[in-house]
Amino acid sequence: MDIVLIAGLWFDGSVWDEVVPELTALGHRPLPLTLPGQGDGTASATLGDQLAAVLAAIDATPGKPLVVGHSAAATLAWLAADARPGKVAEVALVGGFPSDDGRPYADDFAAEGGLVPFPGWAPFDGPETADLDQPTRDRLASIAVPVPEAVTKGIVHFTDERRFDIPTLIVCPEFTPTQAQHWIATGESSELARATRLDYANLDSGHWPMASCPRELARVLAEAANS
């Protein structure tokens, strides 16, 4: 199966470099995306531009792909499912939940001159980074790129309720499936609360499993693609 891989803030398609060969060895075709404004040098990109790039990748596949969104890009994957409910086989959300309709995409970090730079590791101290050794932190920081403020402050809009019937896998890295189920049940994600086909997978890692446990992440994604 084709597997569209969408990184969260600050990272381009290269952040999946260690996952790609593992998925390939498991018989799938990974498609890591470098989004407009997030590694392609386009500082003026918008959330709409990023969604258009994801939809173009989905439309180019011969069948129905698994669409994977990491962290903030959980929202981008969900937007793609909303825009292509008949073309997406399944959605996998790694370490993130979709934003609610009418909310900004990801405006938690400060902008400087129209760009939101990688803030360093201090804001993520704790379970999110506990599994990252210093060389891995250094490597990730070296490939991080500022994200256009127009992306992070783009307003999320959904239009097709068929998205709720698409099988959705919640991949739980720095939190557990039990925690995720509780958060959804108590209103942390009004979108996922309406999803009819939710499954959960525990990774027991930090927030960037593509860097700290790529083989385990690939296995989880391959199992979803095979289901």
From TrEMBL:
InterPro entries: AB_hydrolase_1, AB_hydrolase_fold. Keywords: Hydrolase. It comes from the Bacteria. SUPFAM superfamilies: alpha/beta-Hydrolases (SSF53474). Residues 3-219 form the AB hydrolase-1 domain. One of its GO terms (molecular function) is hydrolase activity. Coiled coil: none annotated. This is Alpha/beta fold hydrolase. It comes from Streptomyces amakusaensis.
